[in-house]
Amino acid sequence: MTVHKTSRLPGFYDLGVEERAGMVADWAGLDQDERAVLTSAGLEFDRADQMIENVVGIHGLPLGIAPNFLVNDRDYLVPMAIEEPSVVAAASFMAKIVRGAGGFRTCSTEPVMIAQIQVLDVPDPWAARFDLLCQKERLLDLANQTDPVVVSLHGGARDIEIRVFPDTPVGPMLVVHLLYDTRDAMGANTVNTAAEALTPLVEEITGGRVHLRILSNLADRRLARAKAAIPPESMAFGEYSGEQVVQGIVEAYAFAAVDPYRATTHNKGIMNGIDAVALACGQDWRAIEAGAHAYAVRDGHYTSLSTWTRDREGNLVGTVELPLAVGTVGGATRVHPGAQVALRILGVESARELAEVMAAVGLAQNLGALRALSTEGIQRGHMTLHARQVAIAAGATGDQVQAVAARLVRERKIRLDRALEILDVMAKKEG
Fold first, then answer.
1. Is position 46 annotated as part of the catalytic site?
2. Which fold does the domain 112-216 belong to in CATH?
3. Which of 147, 181, 275, 284 is catalytic?
């Protein structure tokens, strides 16, 4: 008999660190070695020295768990590595609200990456485009020879596209796009290798000179989407009715939809959630960031990656769509013990599933930010958590952290100098 695991963990926040770690380890079925990774830095010094150059130490980030996520009727505990307070809490709380309305729905496209081949000194760019397209199958066959393993997994080269730039600072330019399905890998090395292998044949066909051969991080053929529909009564809290909250969120979204200054911060909130999962799971978060923001301006105007509207029944409906080039094999997922454990906790079975969960986390994070902004303001909840960091920075330890943070919040003076004064008074009383 299969026992259903739920990501709904009441009281999780109130547990101690070791208790939380134990609960998550039991939930994910971690062995003793994996449990040890979870409660350590997640990376040994020798392993770090093999991963990058000039290593002098290991830089740590807090690893949190966001419970409550129900995505396509499946429960997830979501690992998030981030230094900013309130992100994990907001994602968890919004996931709880969405869970009560049936959870997130997600979908994604095939994991197709784009490799670009820059061709210069082409005698006749349009004729070269014609010739390349006529020999597409020859190019695809050659690209597929570079990675038989990916091809055996039903991935590989899918198509060739040609872009002509007749007037550039270096003369006419031809750009060849190789569309390549990388399956469960992020795919940078795979597509770069394939692009390099095509160089001699592209030069032969075009009569030009191949210069750059590199993947594009604007992975707009590799999209992940998430959706949530929430009844207004689920959004009510304190003095705010559900109708007020929902209307406030829709109006806040409208601001981000038309103004790039607001959209930048709006999208940063989405990426707070996505990047935190990416970091925890060993993904290339810089590539994800670059692709997301380029996608946000694809129509010539930087705008929101999400939408928030109301349906016929008055429910709040949110969607998000963005490129998410992630992998569950290769890269840091193969060499970083902490990333491997995070993926075990998340329990995804493919790169597409990982991307879809990340999209859901981004939408939850966006919902939390908009709810706060359109009601009591972003500072109230955020600064309560920020006060703890200020207390620690001032030198508070143990029970002092909460005592100092509570005093800072009560006085509405969340500043380092005030925290130092409070600690000084506490020390004199104890002395």
1. no
2. Alpha-Beta Plaits (3.30.70)
3. 284
